[in-house]
Amino acid sequence: MAKDLNPRQLRFVTEYLKSGIQSRAFILAGYQRSTRNALDVGASQLIRNRKVKREINRRKAAMVKRSDVTIDKLLQDLADDRDLARRIDQPSAAIAATQLTAKLVGLLVDRKETGAPGDFQGLTTADEVLAAIRAEMGEDAAKALQALVNKASPPVTSEPEQPVIPTAQGSDSLN
């Protein structure tokens, strides 16, 4: 719970939940870094800390419970908003409501960067990259990447292909 965290970590959680910006929360919590890169790395490491992540999730769950928000209620609100947008001839608002609905039900996923800067820097072979993906994202992600690599790369054959030399029609010999 919250007692497992030190005061700066607690402040980080509070500030992160206010703004959703890791680097801002990191600075407001009292952490200092000399460069922008060091700031981003420090904030990223802190947000991935098991105890910090658990406290963020605990507080988010409490906020949802307090406000009595459910996925069903959100989906109904979005359907109502989409209908209203169509009635008042606002297609962009209707599209936005449709996109948010798709995100809520998991049909549309924003890209998400995982890992720290430089995690893939020392990897030189496809097998090393696949092992890193497997460790970071799981077996399914590694299999999907392997399938993409196999589809994009032509198969390697052990014997080189012999070039075909065209001959003149009706002639079996070269003069």
Tell me the layout of helices and strands.
Elements: H1 7-19, H2 22-28, H3 36-47, H4 50-67, H5 71-87, H6 91-104, H7 126-137, H8 139-152
Helix pairs in contact: 1-2, 1-4, 2-3, 5-6, 7-8
Question: What labels describe this entry?
Answer:
175 residues; mainly alpha; Arc Repressor Mutant, subunit A; 3 domains; 8 helices; flat
What fraction, in percent, of the residue positions are helical? 55-70%
The number of distinct structural domains comes to: 3
CATH class of the largest domain: Mainly Alpha
Major sheet characteristics = none
Beta-strand segment tally: 0
Q: What would you say the CATH architecture of the largest domain is?
A: Orthogonal Bundle
Specify the CATH homologous superfamily of the largest domain: Terminase, small subunit, N-terminal DNA-binding domain, HTH motif
**CATH topology-level name of the largest domain:** Arc Repressor Mutant, subunit A
Give the count of helical stretches. Answer: 8
Structural class: mainly alpha
Q: Average pLDDT, to the nearest integer?
A: 81
> Segments where pLDDT lies below 50 for 5+ residues?
none
What is the chain-wise order of helices and strands? Answer: HHHHHHHH
Shape: flat
Q: Compute the gyration radius: what is it? A: 27 Å
Strand content: under 5%
Distance between the termini: 91 Å
